[in-house]
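Summary of Year 1 activities. Much of the first year was spent building the evaluation harness for sequence design. The harness presents a backbone, in tokenized form, and records the residue chosen at every position. We chose the following record to illustrate the format because it has been used consistently in internal testing since the harness was completed.
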């Protein structure tokens, strides 16, 4: 059986672009190119980005315009509870669009999917491409509705062969599990499918893709500390939805406005020490 293709997929621009493509997103793509030497990088979008960082990286990407997932656009599940109502009214359901699109893309083409707030720091091991599907654990999580504790399998980084059995079953289950909340269909859904077919997916330790998890303590190390020993990490996930806007200070005082080119070049933090070599 052929290995997973050394092709990377990113999904972005599922909502109108009202500000230039950010340096952080450029660094994601630039680090992917330099660290992993992919055969291709596929950039899937509905609204194309713009700005100087986009113009710099655009020639090195294969662009694919995608259409919204009709199931999400038409879903009435959002109105059944407060969380879903907030997501729909705040126009955050583009994140759910991306949840479905990434699995559809991997099912059809195979390769590596990563969120665009990823920074690649070490080449993926050749052994990871030999499995049918690979996903990373992000540790234990608890369902808010039932209190059930489960191992969350984060969908921010996935490797898969075309037609991978786990991806196909996970995608099918998402249509049944989707209730408009953030992750019942995605990270929790992946753990449910894994219980049914544990041999269909290879789960790697949290340290590979999620050395820093989505807590204020870990984000402080990543964005404000200066840790140099990354252990087994292949990539770093930034969880930027938790701190991106300047008004959002409950997880970090760093925001998208902090991370300028000068800041990345001149200020030593865990993130900038890793990222600055990809600027030139």
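For this record, the design step produced the sequence shown next.
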């Amino acid at each position: 059986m052929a290995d997973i293709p050394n092709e990377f997929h990113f999904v972005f621009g599922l909502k109108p672009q009202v500000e230039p493509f950010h340096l952080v997103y450029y660094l994601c793509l630039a680090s992917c190119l330099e660290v992993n030497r992919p055969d291709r990088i596929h950039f899937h979008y509905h609204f194309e980005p713009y700005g100087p960082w986009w113009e710099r990286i655009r020639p090195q990407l294969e662009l694919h315009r995608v259409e919204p997932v009709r199931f999400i656009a038409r879903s009435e599940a959002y109105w059944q509870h407060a969380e879903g109502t907030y997501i729909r009214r705040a126009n955050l359901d583009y994140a759910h669009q991306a949840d479905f699109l990434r699995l559809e893309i991997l099912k059809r083409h195979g390769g590596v999917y990563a969120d665009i707030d990823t920074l690649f720091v070490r080449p993926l091991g050749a052994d990871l491409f030999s499995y049918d599907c690979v996903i990373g654990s992000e540790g234990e999580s608890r369902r808010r509705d039932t209190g059930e504790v489960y191992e969350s399998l984060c969908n921010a980084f996935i490797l898969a062969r075309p037609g991978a059995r786990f991806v196909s079953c996970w995608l099918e289950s998402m249509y049944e599990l989707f209730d408009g909340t953030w992750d019942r269909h995605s990270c929790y859904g992946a753990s449910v499918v894994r219980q049914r077919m544990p041999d269909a997916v290879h789960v790697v330790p949290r340290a590979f893709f999620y050395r820093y998890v989505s807590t204020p303590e870990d984000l402080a190390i990543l964005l404000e500390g200066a840790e140099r020993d990354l252990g087994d990490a292949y990539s770093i996930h930034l969880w930027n939805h938790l701190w991106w806007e300047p008004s959002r200070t409950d997880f970090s005082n760093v925001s998208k406005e902090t991370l300028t080119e000068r800041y990345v070049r001149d200020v030593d933090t865990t993130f900038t020490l890793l990222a600055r070599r990809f600027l030139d």
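The mean pLDDT is 93. Quantitative recovery figures across the full test set are reported in Table 2.
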